[in-house]
Design a protein that fits this description.
heterodimer; A: mainly beta; 6-stranded mixed β-sheet; 5-stranded antiparallel β-sheet; B: mainly beta; 4-stranded antiparallel β-sheet; 44% strand
Amino acid sequence: KNQVEQSPQSLIILEGKNCTLQCNYTVSPFSNLRWYKQDTGRGPVSLTIMTFSENTKSNGRYTATLDADTKQSSLHITASQLSDSASYICVVRDTSGTYKYIFGTGTRLKVLA
Amino acid sequence: DGGITQSPKYLFRKEGQNVTLSCEQNLNHDAMYWYRQDPGQGLRLIYYSQIVNDFQKGDIAEGYSVSREKKESFPLTVTSAQKNPTAFYLCASSSQQSKSYNEQFFGPGTRLTVL
């Protein structure tokens, strides 16, 4: 069964600190992996999209990495801000169907002052 | 939230009632999607539509119905047959569903509560 698992489930860090969120997937074959940020009660907003041939993609203080061999991705947040408090969702799109986006359950990040 | 709007933001329904959630996009996207989000679970696909007047069931379509009469609109009806409808509902759209790299844009969501 195609799955996307994220860890940790929740994380609390102090403002200004760095953190790394993990995403492991079993989806195969897949075409791309995405990271979304979802504020409470809002829709997800895309942070990065990487194809299977890309190793890293940055968007400001957010840097995503992908290891297609080990089927692992990470999202690194540098110099965290209070506004980074949100859920971060990893999504993998498989190529066995034309519509399948496989969503992880997310990591809930809380940044404290 | 891009150019996708959902209404209402909060919706309360009595058991046995049908309710319709609105989703409109002005991005000229061909594909539209409805997802359900429950605490501790990933988004689950209810229905999707690639073009006007065409739609397909997702993983959890039972108790739901949709229509796609216009490119801009993809309303979702939660029927009384849906046994556990309380959830956060998200609508999304993308330029061409068949292209693998296309980005999904999400609406702000509708929180449905059954009283």
